[in-house]
Amino acid sequence: MRDDRTNSGYTLVELVVVIATVGVLSVLGSSLFVSRSAFSPLLATQQLASATLLAQQAALAGNSAGTLTVEQTAESFRFTVGAGSPEARTFSVERAGTSLSGVALPLTLSFNSQGGVATGASTNLTFSGDSTYQTCVSSLGAVYSGGCLP
């Protein structure tokens, strides 16, 4: 009588090699995320774009929340849409070694009924930390990376 059963499964050596490999990759990969300050300028830039869009939508809808105020505290950046109105919303991003330059703070942008900046001027903002992100809020209310064109 012949036994056709084959051994299936993994050997102890194979399991140890896989566990060791996953451990090494975890240590190497986690070092990328140890310092949040490298991501803080990008997060602040993205939060600025989101808050600007919300303020524009409020202005287009004709309600009183058509302003955006940008502040820098010791711990965070604070973006307030519609400050002083019942519809006010505040968003915060941890600074983690990041600073904002290029404008006097607090910065308040008001949007008109067409969604553009009420003053008609573009605004350059630079978020700096382990990396630097320059952002432009154009006179039309668009937010994009890089400096504003003259």
Automatic annotation (TrEMBL):
<keyword id="KW-0472">Membrane</keyword>
<keyword id="KW-1133">Transmembrane helix</keyword>
<protein>
    <submittedName>
        <fullName>Type II secretion system protein</fullName>
    </submittedName>
</protein>
<keyword id="KW-0812">Transmembrane</keyword>
<dbReference type="InterPro" id="IPR045584">
    <property type="entry name" value="Pilin-like"/>
</dbReference>
<dbReference type="InterPro" id="IPR012902">
    <property type="entry name" value="N_methyl_site"/>
</dbReference>
<feature type="transmembrane region" description="Helical">
    <location>
        <begin position="12"/>
        <end position="34"/>
    </location>
</feature>
